[in-house]
């Protein structure tokens, strides 16, 4: 467990300046997640992380601020940690989940991020 765990444990998951990363944000499922996350007022920084930097840029251009693209190869553990370092929430849409599903949530947790589906976070924080 990393030192960042205390960061996420010391404040609510949802706060006024959430930094959210959508891994695979340029893909079909990821674009929907980006559109949804961009609509929440508490999301102040939306990292659209994708292997294809152009697709990440396209969805960022579509939704506007607070979205910004980051090129990310999910097989690069050091880069995953770099992208997740200051995130509060990581939404993983990269598949196939049988191949990549374990690596991304474990890294997010190690970095002190919450990796639950956003809908369950919203429900637990009584946003609805």
From TrEMBL:
It holds the Pfam family Sacchrp_dh_NADP. Residues 20-113 form the Saccharopine dehydrogenase NADP binding domain. Gene3D superfamilies: NAD(P)-binding Rossmann-like Domain. InterPro entries: NAD(P)-bd_dom_sf (IPR036291), Sacchrp_dh_NADP-bd (IPR005097). Transmembrane segments: none annotated. It comes from the Bacteria. This is Saccharopine dehydrogenase NADP binding domain-containing protein. It comes from Rhodococcus zopfii. The lineage of its organism: Bacteria, Bacillati, Actinomycetota, Actinomycetes, Mycobacteriales.
């Amino acid at each position: 467990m990393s030192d960042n765990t205390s960061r996420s444990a010391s404040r609510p998951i949802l706060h006024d300046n959430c930094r959210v990363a959508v891994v695979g944000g340029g893909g079909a499922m990821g674009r929907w997640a980006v559109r949804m996350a961009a609509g929440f007022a508490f999301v102040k920084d939306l990292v659209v992380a994708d292997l294809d930097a152009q697709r990440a840029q396209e969805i960022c251009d579509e939704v506007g601020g607070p979205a910004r693209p980051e090129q990310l190869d999910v097989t690069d553990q050091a880069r995953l940690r770099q992208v997740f370092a200051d995130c509060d929430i990581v939404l993983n849409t990269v598949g196939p989940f049988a191949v990549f599903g374990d690596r991304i949530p474990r890294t997010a947790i190690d970095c002190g991020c919450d990796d639950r589906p956003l809908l369950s976070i919203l429900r637990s924080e009584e946003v609805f």
